[in-house]
Amino acid sequence: AFKERVFSGMQPTGSLHLGNYLGAMVNWIEMQKTHECIYCVVDLHAITVWQDPKELKNAIRQVTAAYIASGLDPKKSILFNQSQVPEHAELAWVFNCVARLGWLNRMTQFKEKAGKDRENASVGLYAYPNLMAADILAYRATHVPVGEDQKQHLELARDIAQKFNNDFRDGIVEKGYADGIFFPPPDPVITGPATRVMSLRDGTKKMSKSEPSDMSRINLMDDADAIADKIKRAKTDMEPAPPSGLEELGARPEIDNLVGIYAALAGISKQAALDLLISTATEGPSIYTGLKRALTEVAVARLGPIRAEIIRLMNDPAEIDRILADGSKRARAIAGPIYAEVKDVVGF
Length: 348
Ligand code: ADP
Ligand code: NA
Description:
By secondary structure, this protein is mainly alpha-helical. It is 53% helix and 6% strand. The protein has helices spanning 18-31, 43-46, 53-69, 87-98, 101-105, 108-114, 123-137, 151-167, 169-174, 224-232, 253-266, 270-279, 289-314, 317-346; strands at 5-10, 36-41, 78-81, 143-145, 187-189. The strands form 2 sheets. It has a 3-stranded parallel β-sheet. A two-stranded parallel ribbon has the order 4-5. It is globular. It binds adenosine-5'-diphosphate (ADP) and sodium ion. The site of adenosine-5'-diphosphate has 18 residues, from helix 1.
């Protein structure tokens, strides 16, 4: 059995948002207490769609600053950007040759991101899940804290690990892995109060960096006024309270989302958050005024200090670059020897 190890990453595209924070980051910070953790800024993933090179450099630093501002400790955990550790791309190529076209054809995120003009999507966008498998398995990570949208990609990473173990079984056993397990199939860690935060404009779509409307998400870089404005204008509905009772409001997707975000930020159960909505329903011009006020308060209290810390860290880009260089060195010290064995097993 391999030692438990955590790996996860986020793309340096646009500002991190409340979905990234509640869906993944909160677990990242928590897992630092119990595990060896490796957290990556996945810049190779970012360029699967066009990125302005000057903005990309800045975005890498900004996501790094956001990790640290949210509580990631770069002395304890390994914090680095993907492109500085060449084993990610090298192992991804091997996995391009292990994974089957049929497996990738089933990936729903590619279908969503490529949209109607699929012929014009980059090959990298299509092969993205193989690179993600390499990110994880380059370190033999056993636990991957992510949001619910990544579940299918994690299943693919498990399939790749298993097929690699089968395809190269003889060499793997010869290397001393008596049980034939070279890559342990990684477990997704999809837990916590908000594994799928939805858009503020459409309760059926997830909150995302790639959503065109900035009003659809709360960014870690939003100031108190922007947060208040977005929550105030968050889509609810014009309908009066359902005749069957206010309890029913929780079944409406946009309301369920606001209740869920409030519960996650306040550290209370969804039922307690719904109770607050019900008990304040008569306070304001709309039945949601009380909930939105409470949500704004707790969001500003939680994100304000993070934003201030990101701004402070961004004043010293050289220090951020130094942290990334140091993390890359520590990451390579783990990935290098594993990839050297991969080469042997594959036969080069
Ligand atoms: P995005 O989808 O906004 O571009 P990434 O693909 O970089 O963000 O995802 C980074 C992490 O944040 C992943 O673990 C992903 O599952 C999580 N995540 C992204 N959006 C959400 C969301 N709306 N709710 C919960 N988790 C999310
Ligand atoms: Na995503």
